[in-house]
Amino acid sequence: MPFSIIDGDDVGNKVESHLLSNNVSGFTGTSKMITEFIDSLADALSRVSTAKIVSAGGDSILVEIDQTAIGELIEVLDSRQRPGIFTFSAGVGPTLRESFIALRMAKSTGKQKTVLYPGE
């Protein structure tokens, strides 16, 4: 069964800027926003037919999904992007390794998109 790895874009930079500026409230607010967004996205993805949330935490989600529901998964992901607030990249592939390669392709070619592993 294929996997999808979803990962927040530039989350480290957002959090680190608060740490470097000694901004406790900014750090906690950003962390809370990321947690709430990931929880909400995981909830929406869990309602996709055949989707199984394997792991959700930090700024990442791992989903196992049947091949027939990949289009539905992509629709949910596209509808949840929030440019200027929180965006993410996703990779989909037949194995965990190949979904990670697809995620790296999404990150390295502009972010805020879903990439299917070649042949998927």
How does this structure look, described?
This protein is of the alpha+beta class. The protein is built from 4 helices and 5 strands. α1 runs antiparallel to α2 (24-46). The relative contact order is 0.21.
Short characterization:
The protein is α+β, with helices and mostly antiparallel strands and 120 residues long. It contains four helices and five strands.
The best one-word shape is globular
Number of H- or I-type helical stretches:
4
Tell me about the biggest sheet? Answer: 5 strands, mixed
Stretches where pLDDT is under 50 for at least 5 consecutive residues are none
Class from helix and strand fractions: alpha+beta
Q: How far do the termini sit from each other?
A: 11 Å
Physical arrangement of strands within the biggest beta sheet: 2-3-1-4-5
Average per-residue pLDDT, rounded, comes to 94
Q: Total number of β-strand segments?
A: 5
Oligomer: single chain
Order of secondary-structure elements = EHHEEHEHE
Q: Give helix % range.
A: 40-55%
Supply Rg.
14 Å
Q: Which helices and strands, and how do they pair?
A:
Layout: E1 3-8, H1 11-20, H2 24-46, E2 52-57, E3 60-64, H3 70-80, E4 88-93, H4 96-108, E5 114-116
Parallel strand pairs: 4-5
Antiparallel strand pairs: 1-3, 1-4, 2-3
Helix pairs in contact: 1-2
Label this structure with key terms.
22% strand, 120 residues, alpha+beta, five-stranded mixed beta sheet
